[in-house]
Amino acid sequence: MTKPFSAVMKSFRIMVKSVHLSTALLGIGLLSPAVQAQDYPNKPITVVVHLAAGTVSDLVYRAVVPHMSRNLGRQIIVENRPGANGVIAWEYVVKRVPADGYTIATANNSNLTLPIFVKDLSIDPVKDMVPVAIIGDSALVLHSPANSPWNTMTELVNYAKANPGKLNWGTAGSASVANLNQDAVLQKDGLNIVTIPYQGGNNVAIIALLSGDIQLLLSTESEGMLHTRAGKTKALAITGDRRLPAFPNVPTFAELGYPPLVGVWWAFIVRPGTAKPIIDRLNKAASYAVQQPEVKEFFAKNGVYPIDISPEAAAKKYEDISRSYTEIAAKAGVKAQ
Questions:
Q1: Does 218 lie in the same domain as 304?
Q2: What domain range includes position 208?
Q3: Is pLDDT at 27 greater than 60 in this prediction?
Q4: CA separation (Å) from 295 to 129, 302, 307?
Q5: Domain-embedded: residue 160
Q6: pTM value?
Q7: Which residue has better confidence, 261 or 30?
């Protein structure tokens, strides 16, 4: 039986109100994550970089973002918020913006060292950060000056044991991934080597290495390749699970019997509560980006290896490395300050 005209108009008015209400709720972010995900993305996305503009890591993210934008069909705005070892950027994204995928942050494994070195953190790098993608990694290479009286890790260890407290190992600051890698090596061999932190970063530490003020330094592949090819340093071992094309004869720490040591990686994260379909969509865009020839070329020039893994695999990697760092720090007696 056909409905009266008045009933039809009443149903129509209810439907229109419902559409208007849904639109309003979407505008203020009150729709459920599942509903928001259906229309994602429908506006520009902001990537908050936790490092200063112009750094190598910043440029890595900026190389990837345009291709993510193309894949998503939306503009991506890059905003640098450096400071407090990344906490300023991460706290902003995981606590002050909606969990809607329109504001994401960059991250790397250095954020996993924060609870080890810093007391009373406002964020938990594992619980408060949901990995979207890990886009690339770079090994760290252990270097010594070219005129050092050792050529292998075994020779270095023997020399250090015969000369306790006489060697200096430089680090880029006092709370870094390199610090924990160094602790793992010293623990395994029971070495007495003096740690010299350089707050000006690795560029300052490299100058100290080349001048002979320090005898050991972990540096990135691109930095190491530059000075080794110039005959100024020699490489002893590398982090990661594979030998590097630039150093085919240099073994990994794992090959030498050390705990698995991690170099540096580059990632994107969102705040908890972000809908899984949104995370998957961002991961797909990142996967697309790292496969582009321009990105591969840029990565290769800077010693970065593209990574294409799922959000679940990235989350597991975060958890595993965080646990490893905690164990290394506990053995070394590191106290948060």
A1: no
A2: 142-238
A3: no
A4: 25, 11, 12
A5: yes
A6: 0.80
A7: 261
